[in-house]
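Hey everyone, long-time lurker, first post.

I ran two proteins through the pipeline my lab uses and got sequence/structure pairs for each. Pasting them in order. The first:
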Amino acid sequence: MRILLVDDEVRLADGVRRGLEAEGMVVDVAHDGLRGLALAEDHDYDVIVLDVMMPGMNGYRVCRELRAHGDATPVLFLTAKDGEWDEVEGLDTGGDDWMTKPFSSAVLVARLRALARRGGRERPALLEAGDLRLDPAARRVVRGDTEITLTAREMSVLDFLLRRRGEVVTKREVIANVWGEDFEGDPNIVEVYIGHLRRKIDRPFGRAALETVRGTGYRLSATGG
């Protein structure tokens, strides 16, 4: 699941980002409305989280601009304000849900997953490549009749590869979609997780679905290997 978090409170946003990443989500962060709007226009997100009071462009205006351009991505507003008028305005601009700071991380995660299931963009309920299947909502992976246990990050990598099955994806694309645009670590982390996945979804079954395309990136066979 890929989330856009737009909040000018840097420390709070960083804490929320780390909490969501621990749940296996990919999180891009912007600290003002204009940057948030630019990211939303350039990338596909499952849910957009908007603070209301921000410099440059407030959350209401960001949401209004997105809806005016036909972007139906679910929007959840975060704010320290708790008046009934604010909630009405947020929902009237096209928002889908509302949380007041401070909030429970567990409740935020549950709300985001519920909004993602409801969806704005049509997304496949089940991702398949031959007999390899991933259910994003249930967070369940099976090969044939065998259930496979993956970590949250492995699940995110496989989710991205299945959505692009049959295509060559670059290491940079994997990082941007799984670790986020702001990732500053070693890009070879992708190779590590590809290795983890091969040991779990391929080798025990005598398959070779995950292919390294030398000098370019990786490809997950559309037939499951």
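...and the second, right after it:
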Amino acid sequence: MVLHLSFVSPLFVVLFWVKPIAREYFTERSFPGMRGNLMSGEAFETTRILLVLGVVLLRLLLMPRYLQSYLNLAPERMADMRKEAGNISNVELQRKVVRVFYYLCVVALQYVAPLLTCAFTALLLKTLAEKQGRATFVAPMPAARSAESSAESILSTSQQFSLTLAGLRSVFTPVLFKGVLSFMTWWLCAVSFATSVVGLVYHSYALKA
């Protein structure tokens, strides 16, 4: 049951980013017997981030089970080779088994890397949401007049550089970064679930065909 829940859990995270299914239901609808909504917008954002972290933690705890299921491919391949007609050399048998163990590091990396990436983007999204209201815009200070021409040139260049940075800060706002990180988190969870489904279908039907 826990393994099935771990497999389907990224789908729940993806659905939490669909506005008609999750956000409107929890933050905009009013139900009979309730004075307000189920939760505020900030609480909904925090719930989504906690859900992502919970899914990552659950799948990391079940990682030994998944890796063991991959290692079980070695005896299955040996059993399939023994059913084949003809003589089987020891070298060929060892190659079949060794390939599984050599590829274990790649399998572990493919399992851990998406989870850690989802966790990092979720934590960045949480940190950005906390600091969004604290961001202040620092206006460039006017350059003081100097008697020397070299000093005026340096101050003018510094002022132009400050104006350029101020323009970039007005474009790359916390709202923009919040949207990018939110989309990255949703996309990573969606791709993780899609690849898991494709792998399940491939190992269940294609290899046995």
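Reply from user beta_strand_b:
Welcome! Quick read of the second one: Residues 74 and 97 are 5 Å apart (CA to CA). The chain is about 80% helix and 0% strand.
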